[in-house]
Amino acid sequence: MIELHYWTTPNGHKVSIFLEEAGLDYRIVPVHIGRGEQFTPDFLKIAPNNRIPAIIDHDPIGGGEPIALFESGAILTYLAEKTGRFLSPDIRVRYETLQWLFWQMAGLGPMAGQNHHFSQYAPEKIAYAIDRYRNETNRLYGVLDKQLAGRDFIAGDYSIADMASYPWIVPHERQGQKLEDFPNLKRWFHAIAARPAVQRAYAKAEAINAAPTVDDEARKVLFGQTARR
């Protein structure tokens, strides 16, 4: 049994997609980040960066005591190694997959996240910041579109690189992007969206958080954090 400590964000969706694709036995433990549940002592024991997702694997690779992990990229890599799926043993394919996973973690996710923040949530609409992150998101969409030319998935076969990137493309309209401008990415996006496991993962998200909202209190929790919290 795997405990998935989760909220309905792109990073949360990455892991639920993998678990559905692999058919692993798991239980969702909701962590309502707008209410500050990510600061509870029990959650901080497994996720000291107070961010979702995190997992506890009660049947870890090699047996022994449960393993707790945070950071979605580390979790996806661990789950791929645990199951022997979605990360090729061939060294060239494996590291192509991992470099695109790291690309998402270091580029697409953070830049799209700042795009969301300044265009959707910031109390002051700063044109420079909005344009800066919208343009960088656009550049990254272009990088992904070129990578997908002539191939079905990011690293050839369907992999954790696709699972990591897809949830950050789902809110493309909020990011000020048009999929029509990126034909390879658009084809890939619809192929991922049609996968039954992906649909199951998103259906669970809707059941947990049917009407996502960020009100004033949630903004204080989500966007006002310092080392003191």
Major beta sheet summary? 4 strands, mixed
Q: N-to-C terminal Cα separation, in Å?
A: 32 Å
Placed side by side, the strands forming the largest sheet appear as 2-1-3-4
Name the average pLDDT. 94
Number of contiguous helices: 9
Q: Per CATH, which architecture of the largest domain?
A: 3-Layer(aba) Sandwich
Helical proportion, percent range: 40-55%
CATH homologous superfamily heading of the largest domain: Glutaredoxin
Question: How many domains, as an integer?
Answer: 2
Low-confidence blocks of residues? none
Shape: globular
Indicate the proportion of strand residues: 5-15%
The computed structural class is: alpha+beta
CATH domain class of the largest domain:
Alpha Beta
Q: From the alpha carbons, calculate the radius of gyration and give it in angstroms.
A: 18 Å
Indicate the CATH topology of the largest domain: Glutaredoxin
Order of helices and strands: EHEHEEHHHHHHH
Protein name: Thiol:disulfide oxidoreductase
InterPro entries: Glutathione-S-Trfase_C-like, Glutathione-S-Trfase_C_sf, Glutathione_S-Trfase, Glutathione_S-Trfase_N, GST_C, Thioredoxin-like_sf
Pfam family, one: GST_C
Organism: Solimonas terrae
Structural summary, described in words:
It is globular and about 55 Å long. It has two domains: 2-85 and 199-223, 3-Layer(aba) Sandwich (Glutaredoxin), CATH 3.40.30; 91-194, Glutathione S-transferase Yfyf (Class Pi), Chain A, domain 2 (Up-down Bundle), CATH 1.20.1050.10. It is of the alpha+beta class and 229 residues long. α1 (10-22) links the parallel β1 (2-6) and β2 (26-30). The protein has a four-stranded mixed sheet with strand order 2-1-3-4, with helices on one face. 55% of the residues lie in helices and 8% in strands.
